[in-house]
Amino acid sequence: MSLEQFIKRLDETHSHGPVIGMRVDLTDHSSEAPVHQHYQGQLVLALKGAVTCEVSDAVWMVPPQCSVWIPGGLPHSVRATANARICYLFVQPGAAALPDHCCTLSISSLVRELILHIADAPSDYLAESATGRKAFVLLEELAQMPIERLHLPISNEPRLRRISKMLSGNPADRRTLADWGRVVAMSERSLARLVRQETGLTFGRWRQQFHLIVALRQLSSGQSVQRVADELGYESVTAFITMFKKSVGMPPAKYFAKRLGST
Which GO MF terms are attached to this record (predicted)? Predict the structure, then answer.
């Protein structure tokens, strides 16, 4: 079953409860669900592999043991790495005090187990049942989960879209801001101003965040640190690890050991 087919099946599942869920194990190739939206809020938990969710102004990264929260009515697309294991929740409007914007949430062991229980339970559970009580606790705990800055601001501005597309095609591209200015027929100063205006970041910080998102996705799919460092154009593995540690607070090996320790 493809990711698109699975999400359609989940959308068609009826429930009177505040939250329902399902698991999906993808095959040995990556999968994508194109732009769609749901009446309910959607939580996507990556158990294995990685998921990226794109909305109009940002790309959100979901490494193992993290989740992305997508409010109801927000158009988005979802893409998963090969052999990913994912858990989906649909949360009824007003059922939980969750953010009104898309965000990445770190998931505790307790919340993870509650999510898995809801995903494995029948969707027609009663509020006074054991599953109903667990659903209530899950939604209360979920609202307390910390937000992580694992997203890349993007823009529909044509010149920035062009730069973003070119970098996506070649993440190792190390052209300077002045070089990119010549590509899109802008001065370095004007382009710097445009990038900050559209993304809230300097160009250097934006490109570093882009590298982090790519790195998390590739490392989650099983690629080695050496290969990812090479693909992103770093002069050495040490330089790549320094960037990664600066961004998330720990080197790749420790980061993924922590993430995968509870799987």
Answer: DNA-binding transcription factor activity; sequence-specific DNA binding
